[in-house]
Amino acid sequence: MKYIIVTGGVMSGLGKGITTASIGRILKNRRFEVTAVKIDPYLNIDAGTMNPAQHGEVFVLNDGSEVDLDLGNYERFLDINLNASHNITTGKVYRNVIEKERRGDYLGSTVQIIPHITDEIKSSIRKAACQKINGTEPEICLVEVGGTVGDIESMPFLEAVRQMRGELPSQDLVLIHVTLVPIDTMGELKTKPTQHSVKALREVGIQPDFIVARSTRTTDYSTKKKISAFCDVPPEAVISAATVPDIYEVPLELEREGLADVLCDRLHLEKREPETSWYRTVMKEYSESVAVAIVSKYGIEDVYISIKEALKHAGRALSTQVEIVWMDAEHLDKTVLAAIDGILVPGGFGSRGVKGKLEAIQFARTNAIPYLGLCFGFQLAVIEYAQHMLGWSNAISEEIGNGRYVIAILPEQHSVTELGGTMRLGNYPITVKEGTLIHQLYGKQEIIERHRHRYEVNPQYIDDLRQAGLVFSSQNGDRMESLEISGHPFFLATQFHPEFTSRPAHPSPPFIGFVHAAKERKAAGHGKSG
User: Fold this and answer.
1) How close are the terminal C-alpha atoms of the chain, in Å?
2) 264 has catalytic annotation
3) Are 230 and 241 in contact (CB under 8 A)?
4) Who contacts 94 (Cβ-Cβ below 8 Å, separation ≥6)?
5) Which of the 8 DSSP states describes residue 41?
6) Which of 10, 209, 225, 340 is the most exposed place for a label (fewest CB within 10 A)?
7) pTM of the model
8) CATH 3.40.50.880 intervals, the chain
9) pLDDT tens digits for 456-511?
10) 85 burial class (0-12, 13-18, 19+ CB within 10 angstroms)?
């Protein structure tokens, strides 16, 4: 096993996750089997209970693990499926060590950060690295250490990395440090933040092999030589990573910098010519464009990063650029909605913004505007239909108010006392009805998609809703999984989250249908071009 450890310095939000995913992509393009691990130094067991407005999207894996959004980037860039072991948190590590101590596994030893915590970290990394990916044994494991060098929370993980470096042959582990190279008011690239960041890394006993210089423009050779001189890495090991318009262009930037070749040299890997089909897919040019509104209560794009990327994937497949118009559900502007090509209501929790989301759904339904609802957007579509087509003005979800609960808590959730990891999570099989829109999109009667919810369509009202014209087009047992409205150009909502399984080369079918319908609306002279 070869390990590539990625750390970051100076500030958070530099793009370590995209850099890590891009490194994996350039190696996968050379037909190496690649896996990835994300280390998050927070004390939470997982990301499931964290506020997405502060931490970003909670991504869900096949096995139901709620993880950091960077694992979503790994899956999308590498076209792989990860599991719980690929997200290591301080909470998981300490829980495992304490459970071992309680069992007496340490034979009376005083349990300490070194060696017990660091040994657990190394063991967790190695176990994750050996997990088969898509049925294949990985050859290279990328490990992204979250946080910033110098943070107290990251220290045990950096110490574990330092130990691994001493335990493994030099050709089996390399360390890449991502750092900021800002530009001053005179337009000069400044290397001092990088120097200080590498100094902090050295203070914990780690010397980077490569430095990825993040900047808004390409790092020139003279700046690379300066970083090389101060940080003791060869100039060819200083890799420029300039800001690009689209994250899928980052692997191309790293290719141009020659990172794959120098990595193969350092890891004693066979040099292979890159396979370019993935690049052709992600760099496909657009011939048309559409505008879709995402009606949400969060004003932060990272909360909906998988939706944003799924729209991009579908758009590329249809040679159509998707412009996203972010709309605050608490301040809905119907004049903007009227000039839009499609409306999407994403998942969410709580009552804030519900009124505006319901109004957006009604507007899409009554004005023949393509609509895609995801999870909460599915439940709200049921509520809106019950309120206006059945006349049940008090129709509501048990989660957000009192009235007629057309959306009720899942029976198995009544006894749940803890919030973390207790929802209906991960992959479930779904039976699709023939002759429906969703059957047309997927082209099969059995699908598997990922879930994250505690509430469902109340079984006692399903017949009433069906008789009023609402089509439940797929289900898992007696649980409704999708709905449609006959005669509408495109009105589809899913209880599951199709955005989590969308990939650049394999766009999600509901998103393909949604973007296609938005194109047709625009071509008919409606929407933004009307």
Assistant:
1) 57
2) no
3) no
4) 43, 117
5) -
6) 225
7) 0.94
8) 284-529
9) 999 999 999 999 999 999 999 999 999 999 999 999 999 999 999 999 999 999 99
10) middle
Residue 146 and residue 88 in contact, taking contact as beta carbons nearer than 8 Å:
no
State the DSSP string of 194-247.
HHHHHHHHHHTT---SEEEEEESSPPPHHHHHHHHHHHT--GGGEEEEE--SSG
CA 450 → CA 60, 64, 70, 496, 497, distances in Å?
7, 8, 17, 6, 6
**Candidate list 66, 75, 499, 516, residue with the active-site label:** 499
Structure tokens at 287: 């011939």
Which amino acid does the sequence have at 518? A
The mean per-residue pLDDT over the stretch 428-447 comes to 97
**pLDDT 10s digits, 292-313:** 999 998 767 789 999 999 999 9
In the annotation, is 375 catalytic? yes
Catalytic residue chosen out of the listed positions 120, 375, 516, 526: 375
Q: Encoding tokens for residue 208?
A: 């980077």
* Residue spans in the chain of domains classed CATH 3.40.50.300: 2-280
Residue 231 bears catalytic tag: no
